[in-house]
């Protein structure tokens, strides 16, 4: 009997544990360790953050779903990994602190470990950033509720005749997830129009991207109606149509009440005043401490300095021009311990996808690589498949899910209304550009596409319901693609 432990119940971990349970025989056990009692369909937090839907619509309790499927659930936050066991036993284990109110520590032994702990929201890296400080966020349902309340207050002030300044974007020079900030700013603009106060609002998209539309993927070329455009043109045109101004190449260095302080790539420092600011935090990894059998710390063996887990990637430091698609991991297996995997955002990327940039003051200002929902889920499923194979006697992982061989589709909401809403549907292949295979653009333009319109919103609505249905492991869930 094998015991598989999955850390994290987000897009990647939940997919991994669901497929592990589906594919493994009853004699093997699947345990999920995760600090929150609920699953959150994060993409729809955007709609919570503009007050369009309630937070209950984007979460559901995990325990009943796991109970139904015979998956053990431990509500706890993992802190340490002991891949060689300890002096009392050679069985590997993790130690987690319960988050169900008891504060107890729990030791969870494993034969296979999947680290799918996603990002740690690192608001602290920018003084004054984030909930409880001077800006709002939509990364968690609770944050999004606060953002909606703050937006409502601004709308009331505008209805009373006041003008309001909105700043939306990235709260640090090394943020990722620019796509989420993009979705939020266009949804916010849509809600202001719907509320009849658009004329009282100034909206600025403040980003660390070199050009808007970079999205941490170095931008992309899109084939449209017989010609090719860059995502910069696509994004600028969406902003221009909606009267949203943009400021690129900016590192937010501090947020004070009503003022964002930034440095840009030229090294200049400046300020942006605001009445409402939704700025995403930079991400770091869960940051586990790792110990060997004797109790000596060996964190560096498994975890990169940014807290993400090292896997089968090429982590050699090299200049941008030497970056290769093949540097990206294939199986997400740890090279230090064959029974440890990292899926979704939790794996350490070998390097960025966007070109790294540094201001004359030495401040890095460039998006970190994104790992959106579709690749995170696909990686989780592939990791599950490989573990099932290894439990069945395979000598190692057989299946790959490299982001340099995988496409992604993203439907980005641009206004939530069944009749006059819209969304941008984008597909890209591969996610990590491969200039050896596609020398012109690094990507296959036959599969890289972008379009915006009302039907995009209907698809986004459908995806919301479909992915929540799938995550609830309702009948036929495994037939719904990742
Ligand atoms: C506002 C927003 C909007 C987005 N919109 C889109 C979109 O439209 N389309 C898209 O494709 N992607 C979107 N994304 C990105 C998408 O949410 C991520 O790609 C996806 O959630 C990553 O999956 P993951 O499993 O790696 O991490 P997560 O989904 O974040 O899951 C991580 C899990 O690990 C748990 N965890 C954390 N620390 C520990 C610990 N120490 N021990 C145990 N468990 C732990 C967490 O509680 C959570 O359950 C959006 C992201 C944001 C923030």
How many helices? The count is 9
Output the radius of gyration: 22 Å
- Considering DSSP H and I runs of 4 or more, what fraction of the residues is helical? 10-25%
CATH architect. name of the domain at 3-121 and 285-360 and 369-391:
3-Layer(bba) Sandwich
Provide the list of bound ligands, each named once. Answer: flavin-adenine dinucleotide
Strand content: 15-25%
Average pLDDT number: 95
Query: Ends: how far apart?
Result: 29 Å
Extract low-pLDDT stretches. Answer: none
Q: Kindly provide the name of the CATH class of the domain at 3-121 and 285-360 and 369-391.
A: Alpha Beta
Number of strands: 24
Outline type:
globular
Briefly note the structural class of the backbone: alpha/beta
**Quick one: biggest sheet?**
8 strands, mixed
For this structure, the CATH topology of the domain at 3-121 and 285-360 and 369-391 is FAD/NAD(P)-binding domain
Q: What would you note in describing this structure?
A:
- By secondary structure, the protein is an alpha/beta fold.
- It has a domain at about 5-120 and about 285-360 and about 370-390: FAD/NAD(P)-binding domain (3-Layer(bba) Sandwich), CATH 3.50.50.
- It is about 25% helix and about 25% strand.
- It contains nine helices and 24 strands.
- The chain has helices spanning about 10-25, 45-50, 60-70, 140-160, 180-195, 230-240, 300, 375-390, 455-470, and strands at about 5, 30-35, 40, 60, 70-80, 95-100, 105-110, 110-115, 120, 165-170, 200-205, 220-225, 225-230, 245, 250-255, 260-265, 270-275, 275-280, 285, 290, 340, 410-415, 425-430, 450-455.
- The strands form seven sheets. Strands 1, 2, 5, 6, 7, 8, 20 and 21 form an eight-stranded mixed β-sheet that branches. It has a four-stranded parallel β-sheet with strand order 14-11-10-18, covered by helices on one side.
- α1 packs parallel to α8 (about 375-390).
- The longest helix has 19 residues, at about 140-160.
- The radius of gyration is 22 Å and the shape is globular.
- The protein starts with a strand and ends in an 11-residue tail after the last helix.
- Flavin-adenine dinucleotide binds next to α1, β2, α2, β5 and α8.
